[in-house]
Write a structure and sequence with these properties.
alpha/beta, NAD, Aldehyde dehydrogenase family protein, Ald_DH_CS_GLU, binds the ligand O=C(O)/C=C/C=C(\O)C(=O)O, 490 residues, oxidoreductase, 22 strands, Aldehyde Dehydrogenase, Chain A, domain 2, binds 1,4-dihydronicotinamide adenine dinucleotide, seven-stranded mixed beta sheet, Aldehyde Dehydrogenase, Chain A, domain 1, 21% strand
Length: 490
């Protein structure tokens, strides 16, 4: 038996280089979703604590050495931070396995490495940036500087806590800003380590601050705070709207990566043997709690039977179980509330007349996981793209297969959504691959692959899937103010 293996010490807020209790000593529980065991207690920030974190970040931005250091000096410290993340990869992955329910094996091997690279990539990238120069004849010359904006609020979700926080923190710090981070209340553990990691890397106190607690209170206090200039957020579209409204009075700049309902389109000329394992990953990785999930699989009718047979078999082969155990492909859902929400879609699917192909129940698990928030990988076939299970972000291991006959029909279904984060196309026809990639209204299209990430490319959503883009110079544009300097030459 594994389950919760480590005693995790109580988690404080991290402000000005110190872990602290909240001003009223209030705490909340961090729980293991595989067992419901309490892992530890976490300080719940008050408004006073959020204010302190924001004032500290402001003071450190205005008067600390971080903003005025050379880019190279900052990058040395950030590269060290990336190294420390790798040195502590087992601990970080173990924390995410415990409070997200993420399989340890995949997290330690992939997600933590990506987190380290998020920091290293921007440390290297920022050193290579130049600016624009515009001479005006012999009389004047203009040149552009990219200066840090100020204090950034970094609000991250529970599905990929550590990796997604570093994805924002890397460019934020590389550009010379200071940060107040708020991880999701469901998953406070791994992000809390970023305070001590930043300190060990030599990043001055006050540059990285972490507050913990509920979105509605702590998140709101942070994203409406007058000292916060920027909000970088990944999470639900509903929360994105709250943050946008709350930031209006102080004109905060926002970068939002929101929900998705990606179409994964399998044409009859696709290599089905490649499409099946990739579509399984896209549907069930992290128990389907992925904004980029291929949660609608559109399959051309002539290959429907073949695809269904192979896809179902591959889903049945997934090992659902203890996230800490070697070989586990799928852990539990993150929380009781989320488990309830995802299961409610099984009722909705029944009412909507979807055909259940596999799953929908509780997997067979050892006794010590009997309280865990588990659900089998679940597959439906439905012919109504307007059904709620085809329109709403379920964010669980529930996938719907929609048959289609023609390319036009596939495109209509793919674009019939409020979301536009990503899409996937499986075809061996080059012209069709381009045609469909151009016609699907989404920020990323993967052709004959899924979730392949190059950190230089723009990443973000069309429609209700986001505002702005992250990645490479897109992230740096968000985290900097462009300044023009015009000089008289005569
Ligand atoms: N990456 C993604 O696309 C994600 C999508 N979701 C979607 O959202 C649904 C609901 O999940 P939730 O946990 O409720 O996500 P959420 O959007 O409420 O949580 C994400 C983060 O926002 C914070 N937050 C919540 N309300 C806030 C507010 N008013 N002001 C500032 N920060 C706030 C939370 O504390 C958390 O840190 C999921 O079922 C899923 O469909 C959730 C998490 C990530
Ligand atoms: O690869 C990225 O930069 C972002 C990935 C985001 C998710 O996996 C998510 O929000 O679910």
């Amino acid at each position: 038996m594994t389950g919760t293996k480590t005693n995790v010490k109580e988690i404080g807020l991290y402000i000005n280089g110190e872990y602290l209790n909240s001003s009223d000593n209030a705490t909340f529980e961090a729980k293991n979703p595989a067992t419901q065991e309490v892992i530890t207690r976490v300080s719940e920030a008050t408004n006073e604590d959020v204010d302190r974190a924001c004032q500290t970040a402001r003071e450190s931005f205005e008067n600390g050495p971080w903003r005025t250091m050379t880019v190279e000096e900052r990058s040395v410290k950030l590269r060290r931070m990336a190294e420390i993340i790798l040195e502590r990869k087992e601990e970080i992955a173990h924390y995410d396995a415990m409070d997200v329910g993420k399989p340890y094996e995949a997290t330690v091997g992939h997600e933590v490495a990506r987190a380290a690279n998020n920091i290293k990539f921007f440390a290297d990238f920022v050193e290579k940036q130049g600016g624009e120069t515009y001479p005006m004849g012999e009389e004047y010359i203009n040149y552009t500087r990219y200066e840090p904006v100020g204090v950034a609020a970094i609000i991250t979700p529970w599905n990929v806590p550590f990796m997604l926080t570093t994805w924002k923190l890397g460019p934020c710090l590389a550009a010379g800003n200071t940060a107040v981070i708020k991880p999701a209340e469901n998953t406070p553990l791994s992000v809390s380590l970023l305070g001590e990691i930043a300190k060990e890397a030599g990043i001055p106190d006050g540059v990285v601050n972490i507050v913990q607690g509920q979105g509605g209170t702590v998140g709101t206090a942070l994203t409406t705070h007058p000292e916060v200039d920027l909000v970088s957020f990944t999470g639900s579209t509903a929360t994105g709207k709250h943050i946008l409204k709350g930031g209006a009075d102080t004109l905060k700049e926002v970068s939002f990566e929101l929900g998705g309902k990606a179409a994964n389109i399998i044409f009859e000329d696709a290599n089905i043997d490649k499409a099946v394992p990739s579509s399984i990953r896209a549907a069930f990785m992290n128990s389907g709690q992925v904004c980029l999930a291929g949660s609608r699989i559109l399959v051309q009718r002539s290959v429907l039977d073949e695809f269904l047979e192979k896809f179902k078999k591959a889903a049945m082969d997934l090992k659902v179980g203890d996230p800490q155990e070697k070989g586990t492909n799928m852990g539990p859902l993150v929380s009781k509330e989320h488990h309830h929400k995802v299961k409610s879609y099984l009722e909705i699917a029944k009412e909507e007349g979807a055909e259940l192909i596999y799953g929908g129940g509780r997997p067979d698990l050892p006794e010590y996981l009997s309280n865990g928030y588990y659900l089998e990988p679940t597959i439906y076939v439905h012919d109504n793209p307007k059904a709620r299970i085809c329109q709403e972000e379920i964010f669980g291991p529930v996938v719907t297969i929609l048959p289609f006959d023609t390319e036009e029909e596939a495109l209509d279904i793919a674009n019939d959504t409020d979301y536009g984060l990503n899409g996937v196309v499986w075809t061996e026809n080059l012209q069709r691959a381009h045609r469909i990639s151009h016609a699907v209204r989404a920020g990323t299209i993967w052709v004959n692959c899924w979730f392949v990430r190059d950190l230089r490319v723009p990443f973000g959503g069309f429609k209700k899937s986001g505002i702005g883009r992250e990645g490479g110079h897109h992230s740096l544009e968000f985290f900097t103010e462009a300044k023009n300097v015009c000089i008289a030459l005569q």
